[in-house]
Task: structure prediction
Amino acid sequence: MVDLIAVYNAFNVDEPLPAYDTDRYVDLSAVRGESKIAKKLVQRIKNARNSPSQHLIMGHTKCGKTTELNRTVHLLAEEGYATVFFDIAEVATTSFEYTTVLLLMAGQIVEQLAKLESKQIKVEGINAKKLAEFLLSREITFSGQISAEATGKVEAEPGLLAGLLGKLGIGLELRGGFQRSRDITVKIEADTRGFLDAIHKIVEDANKKALAAEYKGLVVICDGCDKLSINASDINEKSHDLQHAMFVDHAEDLRSLPCHVIYTVPISIPINLGDVWQQNPEFVPAIPVNKLPDIDDEHHLSGREALKEVVSRRLIQQDTTIDKLFEDPSLFEQLLSTSGGHISDLLLLVQEAVLEAQTDNAEHIAKSHINRSILRRAQEYTRLIESRYLDILASIDQFKAAPSNSNEFRELIFKRLALEYVCGTKNCVDLHPLVAASEAYSRWNSQKR
Amino acid sequence: MTERTFSPKIENLTSEQISPVNLYSRDAVVSDIIDLYHTNELLVDDEKREIRRLVQALHNRKGRFGLFFAICNENSKRKELTQEIIAALSDQYPVQLQLSGNEASLLDTLLAVPDTSEPLIIQGIELLLPSADNKKAEREQTLQELQLRREQFRNLARPLLIWMPEYVYTLIGQQAIDFWSWQNSFFFTNKPFSSDPILEAKNILRRDLQKDWPILKSYIPAPPVNFVGRDQERDQIMAALKNGQNVVISGMEGIGKTSLANFVAESLHSDFPDGQIFISLNNNGDTNAINKELQNTILTLRPDAELSNDFVSLIAIYRGLLKGKRVLIIIDDAPNEKAIYPFLPPDSSVLLVTSRDKINLLNGISLSLDALSPKEGRSLLLNIVPHLELEVVDKLCSLCSYLPLTIKMVGSLLVNRKIDPLFIIDELTDRFGLERGFAQQKYLSLSTILNENYNFLKPETAQVLRQLVIFSSSFDSSAEEVICQDPNNVFLNELVQRNLVVYDEIQNRYSLHDLIQDYINNLINIEERNNAAKRHSIYYASVLRAADQLYQQGGEAIKNGLILFDLEWNNIQAGQKWAATNADKDSVAAEICIAYSDATLLDLRQHPRERIQWLESALIVTRRLNRSQVECAYLGNLGNAYAELGEFDKAIESYEQSLTLCRINNDSANEGRTLNHLGLIYMDLGNYSQGLKFCEQALALAQEKKDVLNEASALCNLARLYTELRIPNLGIEFAEKALAIFRNIGDQRGEATTLGNIGHLYFISNEIKLGIQFIEEELMMLRRINDRRGESKALDSLGQAYLSLKDVSKAIEFFEQSLVIIREIGDKYGEYIELSNLGSAYFESGKIKDSINFFEQSLLITYELKHRYAEGDVLKNLGVVYLASGMVKRALELFERSLIIKREFGDIQGEGSVLFNMSVAVSRLGDYAQGINYAQGAIKIFDQLNSPHAEKAREWLNKLQKAISPK
Result:
């Protein structure tokens, strides 16, 4: 008998796979237009040799970027690099801008290098002190007590600064939110040069020390930048385009670090990043599972096989298979089609179908469970569709391509109402099947007709 | 007699044009999901089940992080449900947390809840997400925290159940998608799945009503209590409606069209026992509005009807509900003709339409109501009687209720009889209002004034006026001269002067006002009427002949012939009617009854249904008079008419009768023609071996009798046969022989047609460009002989050619050009074909919506034409479009309706094609077993017909069988 509780939990989507989880990891590069993301990133860093390099990775929310980055860290460690990996969204709490990213990055470098398993690296105290002094001189206080702490002990061990910077994010006034980040940025921007110098000094020193410790180099991976929301309002109700500000206006600042650095970028970024970053992001597209116009069948057929493998591997760990879990394997195919090739949607659909089966005290997933699972997900997607999206959805539906110059399109991609695929050399955009089928879209569509 | 020669047919769309079935097409997936919405079992909001599901989810995530959103708009109910959930969680002891709204951070607050792995149930998150505009920053704050710190929520390591109202749920989805995408949702709102207001309304109604709904209620608003006048119009409308004719009342705003319509409806209560419906379009022709009205009407007819968003399905539902019922449907304030089409009922019911503009319906009468403004009334009367005092003018106009005709008649009386206006005001007025309890009011009735005018006429003039009643529409002076025996139109001119006859200077034609016509109708006696009608019938038979001669002359003359015909069509129809009615008692009537059916241009202009009627009346006479030569020709024409309607059985029957007669008469010319027709009809039916048999017989006969015209026709038909069989070499051989003959005898039309055939033959041998050259040559020739109809067909062929070259935009261009001509010559059948072609072309170019739009227009025309056969074709094509666009269920519905029609007509080729498409459709829905069934049915038919489609269908069947067999 299938242990449905175990199966339910095996399809939890809120955790990316750890790098070592080879049992569950399926290399999907073949079905993502040959995007061997982790390997490519490592190779690029190796190619850059001792010069600093910057890399971008881009993909839909919950498409497996972090999984790829985990593997990248793993591979880099094998190659002998010192790596600092952190999720900016975790340390920055509510919102961030390039300034806060760089600050937090400096903190993470100091902190994580000091804790490396084999050869620890201690960043020079004098540089950390300079940064702390800079911040204090600009009256950037983190919170009452930390500020006092910092003032008193700035000349002490560099570890303290690490701690201080590490706490920076957590110390931000949460109710201040974006405005708080704005305050910091405004203060820093009174002397951007000085700020960047202070940051660069720390990184430069860390890089030098890493090389001296016979690491091949220092790689900083900043995950979570893609979670940056598109807009935020400041205290004057003025709306800021956060993504554009960070990855376009301040791309130079993010690129200026004297080490190797990898950022995740939001998929909804409006412009061609290749112009500013002098390289195109590594793209983690959705996986074709349904026939796309003018695309050979092999793409979606192999996409389906790959995702079937993803699910099968999770099931095998629970001692079951698709054939055993579903009353009829074609039911799974239906979920697969419905997911539009978005992994976490597929996992959620399976998980929900399991829950439905459990609710009915069934041992296997039957047609009605599938239907309920799909319908629930479809209802959820309906909620995400705002009326201003409808025209653009229709255009995507018709042309299967990204409309140019559309702010709505960024949002659609961000909210994965539309999915991007890479089939061989062809790029293609399509509506998420659940969106195309949603009441909101189909009703509008039929009325329009 | 006309030859049914090669005419381009709309390509039958079969699934060859759809990419071979793809089980994984996104559109199919989408269609499956859409279909799920209609699965009733899922719409039931079963609270108990939802609680069970939630408890199971909490149980699954015991001791681990899990994110669950419970959605319920009522605060008190949330608390109640929480208690139920806690009670059901046997092995867990949830902690409840009520947020205050002052929390600095949601996550931090949650992390601070005592360290335990028990589920955490949170109430009041909406306080952190206030919806007020001035709380935007607070709201964004929380949303950003959810979005960015989502990973840290995992540190809670316990199941999290968050209660929220629906708007919060949507808000989080839209603004914090990453956090949202982890959650499972549980709905406890009243109706989570049906937000469709129509659906809701339907559900409410369903509860209130018993299952069946046998008799409709009357929904007609009551007419105003003081409704007066319009007696003539009312009688006219009532008579027409009782007679099953649709009626359009037009006239300016506020003139009382709606009141009249409602008054009529009230009076006709017992004549429409199944009820009366009132549909108000408010002069709005917007498709959405019409769609909506149609839905409402359907719900009125049957409150628990299953609605659809699809326009065509709606029309079908509507017509289905009215089938066999006798219902009066009032459409109030219709913007145009197009807006009325969807509401055209089946024969048993009738439409009563009011509209600001004059609208003509195919089966119906149209009358306009008129009244003038005081200013208009004044100027009208002063125009006739210039020196009248203004006060008197206004008084008179007011007494005339500003009705122009009455005013004119008053004017005429004043001028011609030179009477004192006061006499009119004091002596001629009637009174009304008493019986309804209103104060008496004076008014001038039209009949009184008409009486005064009529009585003043000289007897000869009065006689002419009486005879004018025979004209059923406008007429010219020569017709009047002959029919009313009025040399030099002396009396007619006098009547014009007296405003009793209207003269249209631009058209140079005369007419009677409807009301005057009604008035005279009561004055003319039977004998006088019959004599006039006889002269009228004879006269218009000659007009028809003249028009037909012009038409057959070709060139510019065609146009003149058609103009003449169109002008006099109503009179021609009336003439034929008299002849047909009197054929058994009047020898002259018998002769002209035969003559009326002998006009080629009737093929173009007359609805085949009416032509059948005419021919059948004529055939009765020919049999009685032993005119077997004519009979045999007319039987052939009858066959043609049935063939045009797609009633092939009856067509074949007529042709065979004709054939027998020809052989008895030794009439080889008609025999050859009929053989050719039989060949064509079997080809249409897809029975190529029979087709070949008859064409070969026709050829042999023609060659034996040296009948070159029939020989060329037979060769031409054989060429077409080989086109259908896709053997171009043979076809071209025959076509070239035909071409030589046509050139030899100087038959330009035949030559052009054959050139067209050759073009088509090159098309099928895939030498499209060469084919186009031939069609272009054909087109030039047709333009030279000014054969507009042929031209439209050639343009159509060019469209087809470019379509097969995948040059869709060019194809569309040609189809549109063709459509312009077709509309110009008023060829409704052609319009149906061209609209269908445009539908196919847009389908090819992937513009599904446009394609559907054209097919729907085309479908409406088939309704208007009452052409079931064509309806079946369009339904099939529309189905193919829906199938390709992934709306499989809808497609299947259309196929099913098409199949019924195909079977009704014994069109087995069509049946095969529909079955094949149905196989594709059901297989997409996963029902392979049924798919195989349908495919086998299709193959059986294709085999029987030796159809080239058989192979394709076999391939498809193999695929299906493979799919179903275990791997």
DSSP finds 22 helices and nine strands in chain A. Residues 142-158, 168-176 of chain A have pLDDT under 50 and may be disordered.
